[in-house]
Amino acid sequence: GGPSPLVFRLVGGGEEPLVEPVAIELGASFGPWIEVSGGLKAGDQVVVEGNERLKPGSVVTVSGRRDDQPGDISD
């Protein structure tokens, strides 16, 4: 296998939020949603655009929030 997929989680809620990498495992997909497991917990904010140039400790600007939640995916 290759390297584990990463997402960048926002840490520190101050005026200059920083990011830290978090290794995740990809699971099932449901339309536009993909299940992940690993070091994230409910409510964590992650970078969804522009993460290609981030490094641990990078300062980011939060330009908008997406509080989208998946719909009812039960059978």
Query: What is the approximate shape?
Result: globular
- Secondary-structure-based class equals mainly beta
What is the radius of gyration computed over CA atoms, rounded to a whole number of angstroms? 14 Å
What is the CA–CA distance across the termini? 32 Å
**SSE arrangement, N to C:** EEE
Strand content: 25-35%
- Low-confidence segments: none
Q: Please tally the helical runs, counting DSSP H or I stretches of 4 or more residues.
A: 0
Q: Strand count, sense and closure of the main sheet?
A: 3 strands, antiparallel
Number of beta strands: 3
Could you give the order of strands across the largest sheet?
1-2-3
Q: Into which percent range does the helicity of residues fall?
A: under 10%
Q: Give the averaged pLDDT, no decimals.
A: 81
Task: Write up this protein.
The relative contact order is 0.26. β2 (18-30) and β3 (33-38) form a beta hairpin. This protein has strands spanning 6-11, 18-30, 33-38. The chain has a three-stranded antiparallel beta sheet, with no helix packed on it. It has 75 residues and is mainly β. The termini are far apart.
SSE layout:
Blueprint: E1 6-11, E2 18-30, E3 33-38
Antiparallel strand pairs: 1-2, 2-3
Please sum up the structure shown.
This protein is mainly beta and 75 residues long. The protein has strands at residues 6-11, 18-30, 33-38. Helix content is 0%, strand content 33%.
